[in-house]
Amino acid sequence: MRDGVTCPALIVHCVSCHTFQSTMAHNHHHDSESYHGDPLDTPSPTEERESDEIEEQKHFQKVLMALAFYRRHSLIMNNRRRHDYNLISQHHKKLLPDYLQKVDQVDKLIEENALVLKEIVKASGIFSETEVQASIMNNRGKKPPVSPSDMDKVRSTLKQFVRDWSKEGEPERQAAYEPILNELESIYKNMPLEERGQVRVLVPGAGLGRLAFEICNRGFSCQGNEFSFYMLFSSNFILNRVSAPEEFSIYPFIHSFSNIRDSEQQLAPIKIPDVLPSSLPPTADFSMVAGDFVEVYGDNDKSEGQWDVVATCFFIDTAKNIIRYLEVIHKILKPGGSWINIGPLLYHFENTPGENSIELSLAEVKEIAEKIGFTITNEKTIPSTYTSNPNSMLKYVYECSFWKATKK
């Protein structure tokens, strides 16, 4: 129960997080071959677990501090525009009489975004508002203790809210989510609605949870899996802490002035959520699980043959080794189960220093899927953008590959 609204079985699982249940796979492993001390000093399983939990807490803190320091970092970046404006000639300033007013308005909208991010931090339950404010005060006058990469992830999270939980994001959801939902409806068209709760669907890379929510909204039981804690903290907020449609306003497109058609569009609010994620069918079980997909499901024998459907949307190219992803999907599906996929192949770890990465062509991916034990049908290409500004002069359109694959 939250604010008088019941959200059936909406659970977020992870380790070390006070408000969440503990089922997250550990991501920090002790490498025994690289340990050079006395063998008798090898850490016990309990010591390793405690070390893992300390590392996870540090990661939680890093993510939450990035959310908390968004305001300060963004105001500093926006102030650069004032500085650059002051360097131009008086003649040019007269041609731009309202420019500083726009910059001032962006400052105000940064403050509005910061209020929403503050609610996300509060909803996490890990740090109190006093602790967050103390950290900010301790760093006053210093460079914010977050990296440009951290801030990129915060800004990307704001855009993800547009894609998943706003009216403006509906075209992207229609392109990427509807084909999966329609395929599910086709597979189970003869199953009575009241029995759909028996069908278990897994959505790896669930992001802010909208696809998983829509699957549940059609009566199926669905579990979302997500690795990014920027996404997990934000999905926990939107799924469990919002009490009314369009309760919050965000301004995700104010951080860049490039490719803007009209300033009024750029500064307009995006209201979230477009729907309240509470009125799910009583038979549907909805949960979110934190952790790496391979570690949570592939390294867990209890997951073998447990899922009727695995739905991957803009996900399989997040793999360091895409073959391992395909093996895990095959392993966890029931015989005759369905893998529904849509997305491009923008390999996330290609050319990333210090990371291994296997990049396969689409033809190679499908060939390996067949060898592993899938029969691929219903193939088509679907164009889609991803977290794009609907009013921007620049949009990247992916030619997404769609298919249904059946486990032989």
TrEMBL record:
GO terms under biological process: methylation
- UniProt entry tagged with the keyword NAD: no
Region (Disordered) residue spans: 28-56
Pfam families cross-referenced by the UniProt entry: CARME (PF07942)
Q: Does the keyword Transferase apply?
A: yes
Q: What EC number(s) are associated with this protein in UniProt? A: 2.1.1.22
Q: InterPro entries, per this entry?
A: CARME, SAM-dependent_MTases_sf
Superkingdom, taxonomy of origin: Eukaryota
Q: Where is the composition biased (Basic and acidic residues)?
A: 30-39
Give the UniProt keywords, A-Z: Methyltransferase, S-adenosyl-L-methionine, Transferase
Supply one GO molecular-function term.
carnosine N-methyltransferase activity
Can you tell me which family this protein belongs to? Belongs to the carnosine N-methyltransferase family.
Record protein name field:
carnosine N-methyltransferase
Give the organism, scientific name. Umbelopsis ramanniana AG
Supply the source organism's classification.
Eukaryota, Fungi, Fungi incertae sedis, Mucoromycota, Mucoromycotina
